[in-house]
Design goal:
The protein is 2% helix and 53% strand. A 6-stranded antiparallel sheet has the order 1-6-2-3-4-5, with no helix packed on it. The radius of gyration is 21 Å and the shape is flat.
Length: 196
């Protein structure tokens, strides 16, 4: 049942990370779970995210349904700056090719964008629809309260601001100018990479 040589997927192929076309738009499968019901055909429960507008949907699919695999191309882009909720990027190979993505689409990724950093973007039908950032990234600490000797009341952490503007809970020994590694999915401090 190949049409235009496009890969067709059945419900058993819809595993987390797979990107497929649903109602004309690319969706990434976040979770999938087979439900077996008595006297009825099995159903696949999925939670999926629209890669164009960032909306997350819960949908159930029947065993007979088939889907077209989304042809998503990964390309390298550079993050430039943000202004009033618009985040501007350019093609790494051709800096004159600029484009913007809106804040809602980026979700929490916006907290970890550093100007002039190269990241991966997804291109669909010739247009950049979203970006992907590494799970662990390094940032310079730009603001942190001073470490007060004997201050253990807070359980040994304080809130620091990293160069992307995000706030991260860090151990008391972390100081302004230090470089720290942060998990961009959980927003948690991983380790200090370099002392100022």
């Amino acid at each position: 049942n190949q049409k235009n040589n496009k890969t067709m997927l059945g419900i058993n192929d819809l595993k987390p990370g797979i990107i497929f076309i649903f109602e004309g738009q690319p969706y990434e499968v976040l979770e999938s779970n087979h439900l077996k019901m008595q006297m009825r055909k099995p159903v696949l429960q999925t939670r999926m995210k629209n890669l164009i507008n960032g909306k997350v949907l819960d949908r159930n699919f029947q065993a007979a349904e088939s889907f077209e695999e989304a042809e998503i191309e990964r390309v390298k882009v550079d993050y430039l700056y943000h202004h009033r909720g618009e985040f501007w990027f350019c093609d790494s190979a051709d800096r004159s090719k600029r484009f913007q993505l809106v804040e809602d689409l980026l979700g929490d990724k916006k907290y970890y964008l550093k100007p002039n950093t190269t990241i991966d973007a997804f291109r669909f039908n010739g247009e950049i629809i979203n970006i992907s950032i590494p799970i662990k990234m390094e940032f310079k600490v730009v603001e942190a309260p001073p470490n007060i000797k004997g201050n253990t009341a807070q359980g040994g952490t304080k809130i620091a601001t990293i160069e992307s503007g995000a706030q991260v809970s860090v151990p008391l020994f972390v100081e302004v100018g230090d470089t720290v590694r942060v998990n961009t999915q959980s927003g948690e401090y991983v380790e200090r990479v370099q002392k100022s």
